[in-house]
Amino acid sequence: MQVSIYGGWQAATIADNAKSSDEVDLGRPWDFINISIPTVTSGTLKLQVSESSGGTFQDLGASMTTATTTGAYNDVWKINGYQFIKVVSSATQGAERLIRVRGIRF
């Protein structure tokens, strides 16, 4: 039987008048993340990843982009073994946005 492992929930907050969260350290490399997205300013959200804390962040890929919503939205995104992530919006946010993430291994 395969057992799923979940990390603890962490904040990936996008500040008022910003487009990106600060770096989030998921604590270890994960295959996927569970992402909980609140109502945000219109646009799209994507992930950037880095191999190390404070490293160079790069887009994870077009497949990890989602349209923003007018209500809460939850999804699972494949992150290919990364530990350090940022959530990036295509639009400047009009208020602070608390996005929650946690790592998952299936």
Give me the number of helical elements: 0
Outline type: globular
**Helix-strand sequence:** EEEEEEEE
Percent of residues in beta strands? over 45%
Describe the main β-sheet briefly.
Answer: 8 strands, antiparallel
Global Rg = 13 Å
How far apart are the termini? 11 Å
Helix content: under 10%
Low-confidence stretches: none
Question: Can you walk through the features of this model?
Answer:
There is one protein chain. This protein is an all-beta fold and about 110 residues long. The protein has a domain at about 30-95. The protein is about 0% helix and about 50% strand. The protein is built from no helices and 8 strands. Strands 1, 2, 3, 4, 5, 6, 7 and 8 form an 8-stranded antiparallel sheet that branches. The model has no long low-confidence stretch (mean pLDDT about 90).
Blueprint of the fold:
Blueprint: E1 5-6, E2 10-11, E3 24-37, E4 44-50, E5 58-59, E6 66-67, E7 73-89, E8 100-105
Antiparallel strand pairs: 1-8, 2-8, 3-7, 3-8, 4-5, 4-6, 4-7
What keyword list fits this structure?
106 residues; mainly beta; eight-stranded antiparallel beta sheet; single chain
Outline of the structure:
By secondary structure, the chain is mainly beta. 0% of the residues lie in helices and 49% in strands. Strands 1, 2, 3, 4, 5, 6, 7 and 8 form an 8-stranded antiparallel beta sheet that branches.
